[in-house]
Amino acid sequence: MADREHEISYQSTSKRRHDGREDKDEPSPKKVVPSKSKGTAEEAYQVIIGQFSSWYDERRKDGLFNKLKCVYSDLLDTATFSNVKSTIDLLQALHASGNLSPQNLTLLNDAIIITNQFGLRDLIRKEMASFPDVKIVSSILSSYRQTSIAFFSSLFDDDLKTINGIYNNPNKSYSDRWDMLFDLEKRRYKPLNKDNWNEFVENLNIIQRTGMLSYFECWKM
Prior knowledge:
Elements: E1 7-9, E2 15-16, E3 22-23, E4 30-32, H1 41-57, H2 64-71, H3 78-81, H4 87-96, H5 106-114, H6 118-127, H7 143-154, H8 157-167, H9 177-186, H10 197-203, H11 212-217
Antiparallel strand pairs: 1-4, 2-3
Helix pairs in contact: 1-6, 2-9
């Protein structure tokens, strides 16, 4: 949190009395330093939101912003996501929906765990020691949500090309694997979801690679 400007207060070291003597009871010049208090919970919340947003936006080229959208994709509707252009947009939408507040920061910790950004948690805890330090994702994010992200994290580039060929004709140009997952889940016709996840995995069995058939099978729910 940015320090407030220091307030400087100067007072005279002495003053001449009417009788000619000096009154030395006045304090010497001093600098009044503001309190180092963390401020209110709301102020700390705003700082944490800023830290979180900057962290993910600065790593967009690594796909973290698109991955974050996938983490939270079950919590907001498609129309809301159409207005999300940055991490702060996403967090503000979660706040407006009641999923995020100064009293409930669980979703921030969930995202840190799923996206493996534990350095961010260390940074946040310097501002707010009470920030969650658990290593297990909360029940707010479904098992499907956690499985789909873990699965897409594990895929090779050839696997992504195969998925593109199965579900798009002609192939689409995606910025990264998370852009693909988000598109598959938000499309109007037969979007990818927990109800057809096993069918999705089964379709990937067309990949003819040693050991890969059993590998895909293990991702069924």
